[in-house]
Specification:
alpha+beta, 5 strands, 5-stranded antiparallel beta sheet, about 25% helix, 2 helices
């Protein structure tokens, strides 16, 4: 049996998380792009952490993001926008 992550926050390469650590926002929108195409878009609550983002929106889609990351080893996934 292979163990895979589920219900995890998203680690980011950007450093804004440290400045916004602990800030929570309601009704945020995310657009997830891979290979130049929109994979999915959704709205929900999000919280910034020192390492990235978490909260309802990220936890709901963490499994989906993990699957996209496996497809994207040669071409990284981009969180195109976070609308607050």
């Amino acid at each position: 049996m292979t163990i895979r992550p589920a219900l995890v926050g998203l680690e980011t390469v950007e450093k804004y998380g440290k400045m916004l650590d602990g800030a929570e926002f309601n009704d945020c929108k995310i657009d997830v792009m891979w290979n130049g195409k929109l994979q999915f878009s959704d709205r929900g609550n999000m919280k910034f952490t020192s390492y990235g983002v978490e909260g309802e929106l990220m936890l709901t889609h963490s499994r989906r993001l993990y699957k996209c990351s496996k497809m994207a080893e040669a071409n990284p996934i981009k969180l195109k926008s976070i609308s607050i």
